[in-house]
Amino acid sequence: MAKGWTKRWNYRGKGHRPSHIEALDVKENTTLLDTEWKLPPSKSHLIRMMHLCALSKDEHTLTGITTLGEDPESMARCLEQLGVQIAHTQDKMTINSPGISGFVRPPSVLHAGNSGTALRFLIGLASRTNHLIMIDGDSSLRNRDHQDMLNSLKSLGVECSYGTEQERLPVLLQGPWRNHDVKVNTSNSSQPFSSLLLATEGIQQPCMIERSSNSVSKRHAQLTMDLMIECGAVIEQDGDKVIVQPWNSTPPKNWEVPPDASMMAFTALSCVVANREITLINLPNEKDSIGHEVLLEMLPEIGLLLNENILSPSKTYATVDINLIDANDLLPPLSAILALTGGGTISGAAHAMFKESNRITKTAEMLQQFGIECQIKDDGITIQGNQSIQKPTSMVETFGDHRLQMTAVLLATKVGATVEGPRLHRVADPYFLDRLSTVPTEVLVKGVQR
User: What's the pLDDT tens digit per position in 271-313?
Assistant: First the structure.
């Protein structure tokens, strides 16, 4: 059944050659509509908070959600299929759930859209039920490797059925867990570890989860544990081993979702490209930045000043070396910033190869379309500074990656360009284009052969 579903829903299909590519026509010298920028809610926090509230049998309200990107929407839709009631109005979300013991078999496939976080968390959640559940995602998720997560579940006695060809989704899962000690590979992503942690809720004996010694995105894993502890979990850490005592999720009745610190990189890039100051309405604090505070720390070195909540160009910058081991989402916009300022080297981002795209090679390809040269490293990029943006001679490819699309759009506001993927930004920031003085027009680029 899984193989048939994959062929049925492959948007290209066997032998299909797409001839029309959706894109955005970005006009030259487009500026910011105003100088105020409100960051969207943190997807990392929001999806975890939704998950923890869905594990509880009480009503909970999440606040600070002025916009709801497509990734949280996918998580909400899938939770509703499991029997969770979710209402989103104005800036809050109300969640009522029967708890994991009351989850129903979904009437159709759980489709995580473009969200790798939602997909992996849902895989862990589904593995705890007695239901046969199919989980799928869009074309980019089907081409990402989920084997680390599935290997761990199989060692717990969960039945997993999935394809072995290029597209690795959908997957059929049949729980529950039959063991309570598990190892998980976290050298490519911390999400399988977080998913297993969250899935321990309601188990009536201690669970031991051992992660790799060379783990990446440790701040995101720590975020999962911190939020679990806030909801009543008792977690003991011994090196790479984590022991979770029996617990039930009891989130705060009203829970504030912080702004997304990673999105501030696009504010910074816009400030550099437009050469104007921008006011950040909801500046993230360091505690909630989950590794992205590295951007705040290096602002003076990349030619930016932050005075209270006003970001402005200083035109004084240096060549920088920055490690993104805990903040690989910054790679595309930060690479563009370095090219336009003092240049430098980005390292520690090998796990960025396992995102919607291989963000190392595809960031380099996207920048080269704007005439920006860089050198690819095993774990990052080296970029010469003081480069200029050139008008692309053809459609700018963004490889299905919202952070590449958002970076390309901001570069295009300077010189004009046709940028692939008109709606990719909605994954994280639905109002991204609305900030521009000339809202880009959606167009079809004809005659393109992949």
Answer: 999 999 999 999 999 889 988 999 999 999 999 999 999 999 9
Give the pLDDT band of residue 439 (cuts 50, 70, 90).
confident
The string of pLDDT tens digits covering residues 75-114 is 999 999 999 999 998 889 999 999 999 999 999 999 999 8
Predicted TM-score of the model (pTM): 0.89
Q: Which two tokens stand for residue 231?
A: 């909801």
What does the pLDDT read at residue 315?
Answer: 84
Tell whether 119 is covered by a domain. yes
Mean pLDDT score across all residues of the chain = 91
Q: By the 8 A CB rule, do 134 and 170 touch?
A: yes
Position 10 in a domain = no
CA dist 323 and 202 (Å) reads 38
CB atoms within 10 A of CB 89: 8
Structure tokens at 206: 């201690």
Question: Phi and psi of 120, rounded to 5°?
Answer: -70, -35
User: 385: domain range?
Assistant: 18-39+259-446
Q: How confident is the model at residue 167 (pLDDT cuts 50, 70, 90)?
A: low
Question: Using CA atoms, how far apart are residues 141 and 278, in angstroms rounded to an integer?
Answer: 35
Q: CA nearest 336: which of 240, 432, 413?
A: 413
371 and 317, same structural domain?
A: yes
Claim to verify: residue 200 and residue 336 sit in the same structural domain: no
- Which residues partner with 280 through β-bridges? 37
If phi over 0 gives left and psi between -120 and 50 gives alpha, with beta otherwise, what is residue 414? alpha
* Residue 252 or 14, more confident: 252
Q: State the DSSP H helix or E strand holding residue 226, giving kind and residue range, or none if neither.
A: helix 218-230
For 416, the token pair is: 């004009």
What local confidence, expressed as pLDDT, does residue 28 receive? Answer: 94
DSSP 104: P
For residue 229, give the CATH number of its domain: 3.65.10.10
- Single-letter code of the amino acid located at 295: L
Segment 175-191 mean pLDDT: 92
Query: Does the pLDDT value for residue 352 go beyond 80?
Result: no
Q: Which of 302, 301, 306, 300 is nearest to 285 (CA)?
A: 306
- Copy the structure tokens of residue 28: 């030259």
In sequence order, the 6+-apart residues with CB closer than 8 A to the CB of 226 are none
**Does residue 254 lie within any of the structural domains?**
no
What is the distance between the alpha carbons of residues 295 and 289, in angstroms, rounded to a whole number? 10
Gap between the Cα atoms of 278 and 309, Å rounded: 9
Decide if 366 is inside a domain.
yes
Query: How many separate helices (H) and strands (E) can be counted in the chain?
Result: 13, 23
